[in-house]
Amino acid sequence: MTFDFLLRLLAAFACGVVIGLERQMRQRTAGLRTITLVACGSCLFVTLGVLTGNGATGVTQIAAYVVSGVGFLGGGVIMRDKGSIQGINTAATLWCSAAVGVLCGSGHFGPAAAGTGVVLLTNTVLREVSRAINTAPVSAADLVRQYTLTVVCREADEIHVRAVLSNAMSSAPLSFQSLTSRDYEDTPQRIEVTATLKLHPKDQSRLELLASRLSMEKGVSSVSWSGLEAEPTPE
């Protein structure tokens, strides 16, 4: 029994090291030690069910608790940074490492080795495939980006500027989300008109043309625009 226990633990350790090395080389949040500990810990929990003689039912119940526990651990490596989410792949790798550990703890060494191989292929080969897809022309991607167009003009020209922006909705066309006006930094006789719109990145030239046209309008002192990160178009 002791030899069998050590064999399972060493198998989980080896699989965790193999997966963790790839993560460590990429300087991920969960690296060599974290991945290895998750795999070994999952193995130990499942082996506990085997050692106590609870049978397949007990092992399955313990494995279910391992999955939920690793879910909380994975949530700790997911971060949101400037509208983008980081760490999802690392969290998924932790989850898969726990599955590999469970398989080792259950004595299924072949499936555990196969799982380790699949995780490595996913994090290496499919990584390059993802990069190749991401470098495809943006016009082929189903994306939408939010832009903010800001125009500073004389108070007397506010109505004209708003009319130009409103007409652009039908002539370009541009998908405006909002159009607001406010006093410009306590400067008398100056108004800041802000338009928020959503476009496919390939149509950004339409926004640039609109900004150029507005900059030549009489009474307009400044025109600026900015765009957030592109996001997938809602299905």
TrEMBL record:
Bilayer topology annotation: Multi-pass membrane protein
Matching Pfam families: MgtC (PF02308), MgtC_SapB_C (PF21770)
Signal sequence residues: none
TM regions (residue ranges): 6-22, 34-56, 62-79
Cellular component per GO, a single term: plasma membrane
Domain of life: Bacteria
Keywords: Cell inner membrane, Cell membrane, Membrane, Transmembrane, Transmembrane helix
Keyword Iron in annotation: no
Residue span(s) of domain MgtC/SapB/SrpB/YhiD N-terminal: 9-131
All residue ranges annotated as the MgtC-like C-terminal domain in the record: 147-225
Family: Belongs to the MgtC/SapB family.
Function recorded in the entry: Virulence factor required for growth in low Mg(2+) medium and for intramacrophage survival. May be involved in regulating membrane potential by activating Na(+)/K(+)-ATPase.
Protein name per its UniProtKB record: Protein MgtC
Organism: Paraburkholderia caledonica
